[in-house]
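Suppose you are handed a protein chain with no further information: no name, no annotation, nothing but its sequence. What can you learn? This example shows the usual starting point.
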Amino acid sequence: MEKIQRKMDRRVIKTKKAIRNAFAELLVEKEVSQITVKNIAEIANINRKTFYSYYSDVYELVDDIENDIVSAFDEVLVDVDFCLWLQDPREIFIRLTNIINSDLDFYSHIMKMHGNVGLTSKIIDAIKQRIKQPFTEQIKTDEATTALILDYSISGMVAVYQKWFNSNRTKSLDELSQQISLIIVSGMNGLLRG
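A reasonable first move is to predict its three-dimensional structure. Written in structure tokens, the prediction is:
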């Protein structure tokens, strides 16, 4: 019985991954509102009934993807010592890079999407909300300064990753992460001196 359950679990995981990847691929070319279940099913090589066994519509899929991305980033950030992070955030970027590398095709499509600013903004806002409380507990600063730090670091980081995914990728993801880390800690002067 357990063997059958594991096989079914693997099939569910594989099917859901195919759906997510198909959706992410479509995001590169279309707005979320223009993507249909039929589009996703064709690219995922499933029938629409299979899609509907997991999601009621495309927007439920979007919510699921957003939640998974935020959860993955949240797991990385849950035990972060933000006092140390401000001095050397490389460990966070190593962890974030590992998340991206774990499903590079999917994240590549998500980061390449054009005109889907809403999805990117939701992800950025969700990450900022997850970080805000532990950050303010560890770093004593006013709310406006906290907002400025989180806006700058998270929005900037996502923008740099998006640019990298849309480029010819002459730098490795690891090298890019190190440079982002240096900029966050030392600003442009730190990067220019290095």
